[in-house]
Q: What sequence folds into this?
């Protein structure tokens, strides 16, 4: 599958870069998958990345997958999580079990209706909480979403969040029909998230949409 191969190269570069920059070589990656609205149909692409990560993370590394729903700041929205055992044989067993769990999740989510609202902020907060608890030297949140947050009137998210030392990668940010009418909606949405991530202390913010050249996105900047 071409998409999986390209993403594999990109994430390989990202993970290697993170290890080199950290005193603690353990990594923790949280894949946040938007299952709201029509974006749920994109879930197959997230599966490809998750499968790659399982094949390339090392003993001691951590991986979790969570979903974006109407309200996402809850441990119940973590679909699966694992810290790989230092014994390679046990780690491989953990990877197989994780893959099976995610496969079941994507099949069910792909057939269902997406949630009515989209709480991206809550999902990112939950991801940061998980990553910080791992104690890993390099922490990454990969967000599969159109990045259009839509909250119900009771849900409050307009307050500062904390993402100190965490890399944020917005992946496969699809365009909405309204973005086609006025492209400034799309660029403005991404600019807003970048500003929020940086204000929260994120070590990096990147948007990855060119799946033909994803490997370039993770090259060290500057």
A:
């Amino acid at each position: 599958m071409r998409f999986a191969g390209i993403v594999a190269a990109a994430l390989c570069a990202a993970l290697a870069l993170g290890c080199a920059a950290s005193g603690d070589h353990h990594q923790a990656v949280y894949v946040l998958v938007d299952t709201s609205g029509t974006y749920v149909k994109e879930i197959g692409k997230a599966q490809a990345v998750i499968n790659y990560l399982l094949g390339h993370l090392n003993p001691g590394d951590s991986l979790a997958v969570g979903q974006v729903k109407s309200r996402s700041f809850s441990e119940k929205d973590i679909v699966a999580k694992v810290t790989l055992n230092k014994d390679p044989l046990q780690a491989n067993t953990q990877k197989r079990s994780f893959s099976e769990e995610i496969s079941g999740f994507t099949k069910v989510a792909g057939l269902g209706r997406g949630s009515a609202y989209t709480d991206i902020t809550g999902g990112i907060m939950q991801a940061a909480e998980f990553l910080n608890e791992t104690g890993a030297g390099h922490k990454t949140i990969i967000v599969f979403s159109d990045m259009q947050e839509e909250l119900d009137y009771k849900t409050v998210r307009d307050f500062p969040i904390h993402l100190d030392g965490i890399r944020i990668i917005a992946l496969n940010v699809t365009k909405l029909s309204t973005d086609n009418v006025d492209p400034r909606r799309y660029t403005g949405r991404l600019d807003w998230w970048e500003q929020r991530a940086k204000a929260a202390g994120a070590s990096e913010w990147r948007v990855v949409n060119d799946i033909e050249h994803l490997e370039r996105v993770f090259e060290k900047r500057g």
